[in-house]
Amino acid sequence: SGETKVVQLLLERCNSEESGLNVKDQYGDNACSMACRNGHEHIGQVLLEMKGIRTVVTKTSNIDNTYRNFEFEVLAGDNDLDVTVKENGVSFSFNFSKVYWNPRLSTEHERIVNRLGPNSILFDACAGVGPFSIPAAKKCRVFANDLNPDSFNALELNAKKNKIKKDRITCFNLDAREFIRTVFVEQLASLVKNGEGTKDIH
């Protein structure tokens, strides 16, 4: 309809690099979208009629806390921000309001994972819910960490959901600096002691 086309034009403007918003990410049956502040209620109702969308939210604050998550206002649909996302063939479940998730990084995640081999060892100090660590663990040994307890719980859940072998990924709930001072240093020392080399550590 003409109304939908107008909203789509608004969405394109909102979704520009300048806006910093991503308003048309559809997460299958569990979908969340961000809408522009101007006319947000109207946009929310129209988005709700689109296929695959059950909840529409708008960001009400910038990232200003330790866990790097946003505050949201539900504009339309269910007041439920538990979502399941598929990225690069891997499924991730989490609560959108409690963790950091940026779908714009999917290409970068895939590019780096493609550089890993079976002998690689990955240390991910800020793993979030696992968009980098989980696909990497399908190829190599991974030590994944996140300070946010909700991200850590989702990370462990997503490893199980994607059937990652326990000897492929170990998850930690530490400050990134503590993770590097302890886990990374200890594992590095062990590799050197066992003569395994360190050239394929990431």
**How large, in whole angstroms, is the Cα Rg?**
19 Å
Main sheet specs? 3 strands, mixed
Gross morphology: elongated
The overall pLDDT, averaged over residues, is 80
Low-confidence stretches: 16-32
In what order do the strands lie side by side in the largest sheet?
1-2-3
SS-based class? alpha/beta
Written overview of the protein:
The structure is a single chain. With 202 residues, this protein is an alpha/beta fold. The chain has helices at 2-14, 40-48, 106-113, 133-137, 149-161, 176-193; strands spanning 32-34, 55-59, 72-77, 82-87, 90-95, 121-124, 141-145, 169-172. The termini are far apart. Mean pLDDT is 80; it is low at 16-32.
Question: Layout of helices and strands, plus pairs?
Answer:
Elements: H1 2-14, E1 32-34, H2 40-48, E2 55-59, E3 72-77, E4 82-87, E5 90-95, H3 106-113, E6 121-124, H4 133-137, E7 141-145, H5 149-161, E8 169-172, H6 176-193
Parallel strand pairs: 1-2, 6-7, 7-8
Antiparallel strand pairs: 2-3, 4-5
Helix pairs in contact: 1-2
Name some characteristics of this structure:
202 residues; 3-stranded mixed beta sheet; 3-stranded parallel beta sheet; 6 helices; 19% strand
Compose a concise summary of this entry.
The protein has 202 residues and is an alpha/beta fold. It has six helices and eight strands, in the order H-E-H-E-E-E-E-H-E-H-E-H-E-H.
